[in-house]
Amino acid sequence: MNTLALYRDGKRIATLKPSGKPGECFYLGSAPACDVVVADAAFGLADRQLRLTPGGSLWWAEELTGDGSLESDGRRAARLPIAGRVALSVRGFAFEAECGTAAARVGRRDLARDWLYERALFRLSQEIGGAETVADAELERRVVDFLDETIRECPPQLADLPEQTLAELRAETVEDMLRLGPLEPLIADDSITEIMVIDYRRIYVERAGKLTLTERHFRDPEHLIRVIERIVTPIGRRIDESSPLVDARLADGSRVNAVIPPITPDGACLTIRKFGKSLFTLDKLISIGSLTLPMARFIEASVTLRKNIVVSGGTGSGKTSLLNAISLCIGGGERIVTIEDSLELKLQQDHVVRMEARPANAEGKGAVPIRALVANSLRMRPDRIVVGECRGGEALDMLQAMNTGHDGSLTTVHANSPRDTVARLETLCLMAGMDLPLSAIRAQIVSAVDLIVQTARLSDGSRKVTAVTEVLGLDDRGQPRLRDLFVFRQSGVDPKTRKVLGEHVVVGRPTFLGDFALRGVPLDTAIFDGVPDEP
Ligand SMILES: Nc1ncnc2c1ncn2[C@@H]1O[C@H](COP(=O)(O)OP(=O)(O)O)[C@@H](O)[C@H]1O
Ligand SMILES: [Mg+2]
C-alpha cells in the first residue's frame, strides 16, 4: 500500500496509511479531529488546512482555504503532487513528505507527464491566443510537433526515462490535450459498459455489471470541464452556468450526460453509457442466461403475430438491449420506423427509417419531442413503429397507434413490475394533457398492449427477463387483468460468489396460443402443455 510519511526537522511526525477505500483522504490542520494536528499558534493553520489524498501511485496535497500559501520547491499551487520525497510548506509550516518507494519510481513518470502537459498547454496558448480558431488537425499537428521537439531536446525532467515511457507520455499528453484524456482507454475497452466520473479524481467503471474504481483521474477540475466541452461542443450543445445539464453523444454513439456546478457542488460529473459494440441478439441473451430458449421463441413468434409488446424495467436493466434483440425478429419485408431520444437501436433490417428527438437550443427554441415524431411517423406508412422509450405524453399517441392498425409496435417503459407498467402507462398518458378519464385511458392500455416483458438488474449485476406477462383486459372492478406466462423464480444467492440462483419457469398459458397454428407461425407450443391458464 502506498503510505505517506511526514517529517519535520528530520523527525517523523506522522504516517498515513490508506485502506484503499475510494475517495479516502487525510487532513492536516489545527482541529483535533485532523489526521495530522498542527496546533502551534505560530502557524495559525485553519481547522483543515491541507487535504492529502492518495492518487494511485502518488499522493496529492491540496490547500483548502484558498490562501495561496502551499509551496513545494519554490512552486506554488493549490494542489501539488507528492512523489518520492518532497519539501512542502503551508502558512510557513514546513515539513517533508515521502511516499512508498514503489510510488517514488512511478511518481517520476507522473511528474514528467504533468510537466510535459503544462509546457504544451502553455506553448499552445501562446501560439494560438484567444480568438483565433484552429482546425483540429492543425492543433494536433502543432502539439505533436512540440512534443517531439521537447522529447528530442531531452530536458532534465525527461532525462533517463526509457524510450517506451516517453512514447507513452507523448500519447497521453495528446489524449489529455486534444481528446478525452483519461477516458480514452476506458472508451476503447469493450469490456466496460459504463463510465462514471464522480469528480476529477474518481472515475468508476462498470464491467459485467460490477462497479470498480479505476486508477485513472483528470489533472484538475478544469481538465474535466475541458473534456466535457470537447464532447458537447462539436454536436452543437453547450454547457455553462446557465445550462448546467447536458445530454450528448460520443462519435461512436455512446450516450453522455454531464452536470456541472453549481448543480453538482463537488465538481463536474459525467456519465457515459457505452454503446455496446456487441449486439445483443435473443440467442446471445439465452447464452448468458437472461432468458430461456422457449421464452425467446415465444417472444419471437409473438412479434410475427404482430403482438404489441412493451419492455419494462428499471434504469440500466437492459430494456433497450432487449428491445433491440426483439426488434431484430421483425421480418425483412416490413417498413420499420424507429423513434428515439438518443440513437441507440441497431436494427439490421434494410428498410428502417430512424428518427431522433431534438432538445431545444440555447434560446429554448427548435425542440422536436418524441411525441411529435410518433404523430409524424403515422404519416410515414409504417408497418411497425419502435419507440425507444415512452417517458411522457407520447405514450398516449403510441397506444392509439397500436389500437388503430399499427399493431406489432414495440416500446419500453420505466417500471418495476408488469402491474407497475400499466400504472406507469396511465401516468404517462395523463401527461399528454388530453383530459381523458382514467377509465378510458386504462381501457386503451389493456386493449393496445398484448405483452409486457419485464427486465431487471439483479443483485449480482446480471440482467434477466423476470416475467413475460399477457395483458388480458379489465376485470369487473375496472382493474387490469394480467397473466404471467413465464417468470424467473429466484431461489437464493450463492454464499461464495454472490451469484443469484434460480430458474425461469412457465407458469401460464397465453390466450392466443391457438393463433400461432391458425396463422401459420411456427412455434412449438408443447412447453405450455399441462400448464394451467392461471398461475
Ligand atoms: N441481458 C444482459 N446481460 C448483461 N448485460 C446487459 C444485458 N442487457 C443489457 N446489458 C448491459 O446493461 C447496460 C444497460 O442496458 P440498456 O439496454 O441500455 O438498459 P436500459 O435501456 O434499461 O437503461 C448496457 O451496458 C448493456 O450492454
Ligand atoms: Mg434504455
Describe what you observe in this structure.
With 535 residues, the chain is α+β, with helices and mostly antiparallel strands. The protein folds into 3 domains: 4-99, Tumour Suppressor Smad4, CATH 2.60.200.20; 179-273, Beta-Lactamase (2-Layer Sandwich); 286-527, P-loop containing nucleotide triphosphate hydrolases (Rossmann fold, 3-Layer(aba) Sandwich), CATH 3.40.50.300. It is 29% helix and 27% strand. It contains 13 helices and 26 strands. It has helices at 101-128, 136-153, 163-178, 183-188, 221-232, 282-287, 293-304, 319-327, 370-377, 394-403, 418-430, 438-448, 513-518, and strands at residues 4-8, 11-16, 26-29, 36-37, 50-55, 58-63, 71-72, 75-76, 79-82, 85-90, 93-99, 192-199, 202-207, 210-213, 245-249, 255-259, 269-273, 309-313, 336-340, 352-356, 384-387, 410-414, 451-457, 463-474, 480-493, 500-506. The strands form 5 sheets. Strands 20-19-21-22-18-23-24-25-26 form a 9-stranded mixed beta sheet, sandwiched between helices. The chain has a 6-stranded antiparallel beta sheet with strand order 14-13-12-17-16-15. The longest helix is centred in the N-terminal third of the chain and has 28 residues, at 101-128. The chain is elongated and about 90 Å long. The two termini are 56 Å apart. The relative contact order is 0.06. The mean pLDDT is 89. Residues 193-194, 276, 280, 285, 288, 290, 313, 315-321, 463 line the site of adenosine-5'-diphosphate. The site of magnesium ion (MG) has 3 residues, from helix 8.
